[in-house]
Write a structure and sequence with these properties.
This protein is mainly α. The chain contains seven helices and two strands, in the order H-H-E-E-H-H-H-H-H.
Length: 188
């Protein structure tokens, strides 16, 4: 319950932040295009590749922002951002508590620097979803390292969704590779 409560507090507090990402309109337009099936379409939004076919590696994240806006206007965007922040903070706190279950206060305090650093991505960008996925991957990898086979089964679907939410999924794939190498070396 502690991760949920702390995540909810930070998510609720984030609703006081103004919508302020400079690319939010671009994400909304590309998200709407993706909803119409135009994932690889001529670019009409930039001057650098105007008219050239481009594809978005973050189409799903942009679709989520577009759906949030279409469903609730700017309040919908703020609500989606608050939900993503609540998830991110909740997963960070859960990860800390999982490592130090006998010292919950110390674990929560240890999570505060990560939460503070995450503040820089509390914007209306698909990147925010990538951070949620990254923190979830860390929890899954730690669980797998502790012997949970079930955690291993959740990693491929997470990477599949993440790959469509934001291009940062490559960091997750790299981390999985490093953990696999570390595990192979440790077994020797």
């Amino acid at each position: 319950m502690v991760p949920i409560a702390i995540g909810a507090v930070f998510g609720a507090a984030s609703t006081q932040l103004a919508v302020g990402d400079s690319d939010v309109f671009w994400h909304l337009v590309v998200g709407r295009d993706a909803l119409r099936g135009l994932i690889a379409a001529p670019d009409g939004l930039s001057w650098t590749v105007a008219g050239q076919a481009t594809s978005s590696d973050q189409w799903l994240g942009q679709v989520l922002w577009a759906l949030a806006y279409d469903g609730g206007g700017w309040r919908g965007v703020v609500a989606l951002r608050a939900l993503a922040i609540a998830l991110l903070v909740g997963v960070i706190v859960y990860a800390a508590l999982r490592e130090r279950p006998t010292r919950p206060l110390g674990a929560v305090l240890a999570a505060l620097p990560a939460i503070a650093l995450s503040r820089f991505v509390w914007t209306e960008r698909p990147e925010l979803f990538g951070f949620v996925c990254f923190s979830t991957l860390i929890v899954l990898l730690r669980s797998a390292r502790s012997g949970s086979d079930r955690a291993l089964y959740w990693i491929p679907p997470l990477i599949l969704v993440w790959a469509n939410l934001h291009g940062s999924f490559a960091l997750g794939v790299g981390l999985i590779g490093l953990v696999a190498i570390e595990g192979a070396v440790a077994q020797r």
